[in-house]
Specification:
Two copies of one chain form a homodimer. By secondary structure, the first copy, chain A, is of the alpha/beta class. The first copy, chain A, has two domains: about 130 residues, Enolase-like, N-terminal domain (Enolase-like, domain 1, 2-Layer Sandwich), CATH 3.30.390.10; about 250 residues, Enolase-like C-terminal domain (TIM Barrel, Alpha-Beta Barrel), CATH 3.20.20. In chain A, strands 4, 5, 6, 7, 8, 9, 10, 11 and 12 form a nine-stranded mixed beta sheet that branches. A three-stranded antiparallel beta sheet of chain A has the order 1-2-3.
Chain lengths: ~450, ~450
């Protein structure tokens, strides 16, 4: 179908912001008023097949324009590139982008520039999966192990995971693939919900949503904590009363504490048996997480949504600093780096429970967990994908969660495609919503 | 002089790029063709005293526009703010910027957004020192210890350094201040030079520049390494022959190696007695640096120019991962965060030898080392500031280095002010140099 000479012709970027702060959806101890936003991009080609690659960085409002500028700065690496070659080997693009010596100075491999690389790399995987007519999880799960290993950058992690070890893990993961795929298509992948637990919600709303979560089939919920200890005691008691003893309650401090505070605060909540404490301190503090983990067991330590790259994940695993590894689909350098992180987790035997929510993060990350189940971990035991019921309506192929499980998406691609009408409505500051909103503010 | 109601009226930004890649100045194993650049800003006020605050992020070319966009995103935090309040307490601005919950998502405290915060915070210190009629080093060295402690954000480092410990270090540092200040004004602060050692230079040029460095009074030079081991053996032998046994030769790999490679490569060069190996691997790899340090002693481990914030420095110190801590004036969140890092180094007894070079980094960082000497470390033993003789002519108060020592700058401010004519010439892409250059390329 595609002309073999097809090229990338354009990288179109969009600053898309949703006014979520108006409802206190997404409020936590560090993020009181997020406006969930996407620095969004579309790769266009001259293949004539109607297919585009979509990707985005997730931000929470201000600075989304900076993120868009960073994506735009990558345009020269993409325009003119062969579509066939790009989709056959997204790793080559990933290496080119991470290795651009001038852009590298702005990280390296962290923050705005690295998130931009992740958005672009993910858009290529979206295009590759669409061209293959497969949802990304399936493309990855059935890919040749040697090829998957070729997609991973082992620089700075080879002391913890060699290419040979990665290959052995992926080869071993092939056993039972067909049975697991049948089970995945039948039951889906377990999720947990954060919807009851936002910090801005009343106790009544917390109780109602917690009971609803159990009724909906979730076996784990999550509460935001860390603003006020007395409030947290009351809210955790309220949540425990609402869900009973059989449901796991995770707590999430969103980096609010110093090391000592994290230990004291978590232990003060221990009576309510929190399952894990998430982001107890700075995501940069490997040694701090190790200290906290030792002091709060049996409560588990979970982190990852703000971990900048595979090098920090490597150290968290080497230091025995976490019980639960939380990948994020849009923070690191895209699918290729998340393959490295999933392989590291498999090597160290630590379960992966992705961060999601925001806008589009559930849509993306489900593919990575499903690949993990089919091709690496081989199990969904103690593994859950975060679920938040916001903003899915803006996507072409929104996640489907039933009885507490993510249904395996069947639409080809990475589920990253946003409705053009949503982009037109919420483009900042010139979309219809913001034009009206800003006019209202000034009147 | 200043009206008490004076406000910040504008934050003007400039994308300034120098075509240094044409001469292979600044070439190393990771950065073959840097165009030293500044994402530059000027704070303007309505005080009527003619004073401005200047600051910048240093980049190496592409992406400087992204860095400028990040600085511009901070404008709403500055415009309208009281000049008196800002200059009396730059820490309050630093906390506001680091704590902006929406912008924080783009880091936190790392990469493009954090470097932008550093540029803005440094510009405020420049303005504060100009208003005080003092070079910044002197303002800091004579500041009240309690006030200095109030300028430090202890979040995420309090497990290693408490405010009380910081205060005790600063109080103890007052003893002998007057004598040290006299000595500083008399002799200056020792420097070392990287000018002979760029990777792109011939052996003849290396020999000539190394001999020149010794003749100029430097007791330490630095060589870039890491591209090819045979070349490095030859270059290090050449350098050792040129300078003799009494001069220290540091080597700098600019993050080129994995952990195992760093150990093997450094040990292969041990016969030439390198003094330190700099950036042997990823700046994110605390545990990797600790492993390397143990395996290459007595060669010292130095790092810091790409260390993103105080939290990673804290861990490098906690893990015993470095012998030499290299602050950078324009990578972290500005003077306030560098105060935290200097205090951490003092607490752990590790000498600080700043990274400099690029454009304007020597001008800035000399102030921090001189403060360190006067108010914290109390010594210049085993402490040297990097010196590279590039691009100083673009500054209003360029560094003066004589007999291997940085002379203490006496011009009020942070030495950050670039000539308006240099900005006009090298603004990208609309400055006179680039207009002519781009026209030449297209003709």
């Amino acid at each position: 179908m595609t002309a073999p000479s097809a090229r990338i012709t354009a990288v179109d970027t969009f600053d898309v912001r949703f006014p979520t702060s108006r409802e206190l959806d997404g409020s936590d101890a560090m993020n009181p008023d997020p406006d969930y936003s996407a620095a969004y991009l579309v790769l266009r080609t001259d293949a004539g097949d109607g297919l585009e690659g979509h990707g985005f960085s997730f931000t929470i409002g201000r600075g989304n324009d900076v993120q868009v500028a960073a994506i735009a700065a990558l345009r020269p690496h993409l325009v003119g590139r062969s579509v066939d070659e790009l989709c056959a080997d997204p790793g080559s693009l990933s290496r080119d982008l991470v290795g651009d010596s001038q852009l590298r100075w702005l990280g390296p491999e962290k923050g705005v520039m690295h998130m931009a690389i992740g958005a672009v790399v993910n858009a290529v995987w979206d295009l590759a999966a669409k061209r293959a007519g497969q949802p990304l999880w399936r493309l990855l799960a059935h890919a040749d192990p040697e090829w998957l290993v070729s997609q991973v950058d082992f620089r700075y992690i080879a002391d913890a995971l060699t290419p040979e070890e990665a290959l052995a893990l992926l080869r071993a993961g092939r056993a039972g693939l067909a049975e697991r795929e049948a089970a995945l298509l039948e039951r889906g992948y377990p999720g947990y919900t954060t919807s009851p637990g936002w910090l801005g919600y009343s106790d009544e709303k917390l109780t109602r949503l917690a009971k609803q979560a159990v009724a909906d089939g979730f076996t784990q919920i999550k509460l935001k904590v860390g603003a006020d200890l007395d409030d947290d005691v009351r809210r955790l008691r309220t949540a425990r009363a609402a869900v009973g003893d059989g449901v796991r309650i995770a707590i999430d401090a969103n980096q609010r504490w110093n090391v000592d505070e994290a230990i004291a605060w978590t232990n003060a909540l221990a009576a309510f048996e929190p399952y894990w404490v998430e982001e107890p301190t700075s995501p940069d503090d490997v040694l701090g997480h190790a200290t906290i983990r030792e002091a709060i067991a049996p409560v588990k330590v979970a982190t990852g949504e703000h971990v900048q790259n595979r090098i920090v994940f490597k150290q968290l695993l080497q230091a025995g600093a976490l019980d639960v590894l939380q990948i994020d689909a849009a923070r690191v350098g895209g699918v290729n780096e998340n393959l490295a992180i999933l392989l590291l987790a498999a090597k160290f035997g630590v379960p992966v429970c992705p961060h999601a929510g925001g806008v589009g993060l559930c849509e993306l990350v489900q593919h990575l967990s499903m690949f993990d189940f089919l091709a690496l971990s081989g199990t969904t035991e103690n593994r859950v994908i975060e679920y938040v019921d916001h903003l899915h309506e803006h996507f072409d192929a929104p996640v489907v969660v039933r009885e507490g499980h993510y249904r395996a998406p069947l639409t080809p691609g990475f589920s990253a495609t946003m409705h053009p009408s949503s982009i037109a409505e919420y483009r900042y500051p010139d979309g219809a919503f913001w034009v009206a909103d800003l006019a209202g503010q000034s009147s």
